[in-house]
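Submission sheet (multi-component)
Chains listed below:
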Amino acid sequence: MNARQHNLDAERLLQHYRTMWRIRAFEEAAERAQREGHVGGAVHQSIGQEAVAVGVCANLRPTDQITTNHRGHGHSIAKGTDAAAMMLELCGKAGGTCGGKGGSMHIADFSVGMLGANGVVGAGIPIAVGAAHGAKLKGEDRVVACFFGDGAVNRGPFLEGLNWAKIFALPVLLVCEDNGYASTTRGRAVTAGAGAAARARSFDIAAHPVDGNDVVAVDGLVRDCIERIRAGAGPILVHARTYRLKGHTTADAGAYRPKEEVEAAWQADPIVRAGEQLLGLGVAEAELERARRAAETEMETAMRAAVAAPYPALAEAFTDIQDIGAPA
Amino acid sequence: MSRMTYAEASAAALAEEMRRDPTVWCLGEDLGRGGVFGQYRGLVDEFGPDRIADTPISEATIMGAAVGAALVGTRPVVEMRFSDFALCAVDELVNQAAKARFMFGGQARVPLVVREPIGMWRSSAAQHSQSLEAWYVHVPGLIVVAPSTPDDNKGLLKSAIRADDPVVYMEHKDLWGATGEVSDDADYLLPLGKARLARPGTDVTVVSWSRIVAEAEAAAGEAAAKGISAEVIDLRTLWPWDRETVLASVAKTGRLLIAHEAVQVGGFGAEIAASVAEALGPDLKAPIRRLGAPRAPISYAKPLEDALRVTPAAILGAIEQLAG
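Outcome: structure written.
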């Protein structure tokens, strides 16, 4: 997609470029920290998918909200969650977004409208729909964007949630990030029919495919979708085709994928593409290099600080459970 | 006080709380025509279809949407029709509603009530009769309530709606038509976690909840005729349960029977028995007794269904054995 066609000015695209680098640098730093033994559990990287997170969240207001899935670092950063607090969270440290009690798959920052990642595939869909339902009941003007993968479209909550969003005409942007794999199984092999967009249309929900590796295209499409949703159009689905350049988790080398497929995907790296678009708009290469280095420095610093930070007080294991009936 | 049924008492509680707090709303199937048991009758006329919302038959999304709506500052009352159907929404209740506050480090609250009617009722067979309260007691983050009288159903439901954590609210289907005197006070709040002394006594403590409380009271009446004074405690809230009241009673009587409709194996009676044994073991005058259903699916045929019931006769037998 030509950036000029979308009237996307260089400054906005450069901002996208910086955010995409921040996401990638965060996840690369997280992987290093995990290899050094500082991050537990499973870390699901979104490397290669950054353009979707950035292109969608750039069109949301601070008062708009999102839910995301297990692969949600990019969405959180793009929505404005403090990356240093996220890194503390991954390391299970005090000061993390959730006080170290959630980890990678449960990052949330309600202060910026990030209503939570989720460890259960598809579970964020009914929650997003409900958040939009709540906003409608309260007469609040906000849009809720919901990120999920191609694997989620085979779960009941996807079908139930789409039906619900449509019948209650809720202001929800449904974003299917189709990265080709449902965990380690090729999504197409386990999905009947044409996938997310076709299923959405069967509910009479408008659905738009987009090249999810082109941040200019995602930004342009989503800007239009959000305008329509704010005007009362009800839910809209965006089917963003992208590619997960890494494995399902950092522990998965992704060897089940043909080598040529992965190599071709790296050639379509969304960050490289955005860089080329910026060069075409006359932005200097040195500017791009500065963006990358700034992101890497920020995340390396955040990672080292998180590694050095203290764990939460042990009493935190027993706080915020419930007002009555929690361990004394 | 007004005389009303257990179902009417719940509708009165809802109406009062919805008048008091515009963020309270109800969602579930068939609510606009009063709900499957009439427990929402008349509410749509006052509050309209946005706040008495008819939903698709989508249990997972009824619960999941309620979680999302609770996270953004509303107080949903979720109707699941039968507790058996709530099993279609266990992820949304157990992994989402119960965990959000803790998992997000206290940033969020999930102030929802999920009504899950329990119990054997008119030969409803294996998928419409279960009492699964012990499952939810096992899940950190949840409050579990099981009212046994119309008055309690009003006062406890109001407290559940005002609670800031998710409440699994388990009414008994066989009690919908039970009548009693109910408080008219618009701020009639029965504290969650406090038991009710249904009948005072000195020889044996009988702890129960939900429909079996009435059976225990009937048995205690018969025991009295035989010279045994049985104290009946209605737990009302299973989590947190009123440990102090139970321990104080057993410290007095030295004998404990727990009677519930749910399967005895792994039932909540086991937790009470173990807790009392740990606290008062050497002081007990007799080994603790439990009465619950055999570990069998609930039959359709009336005599087979009845074979699983905890009856007043069985409770009386256990009381006599304990006191003997």
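Remark: The mean pLDDT of chain B is 98.
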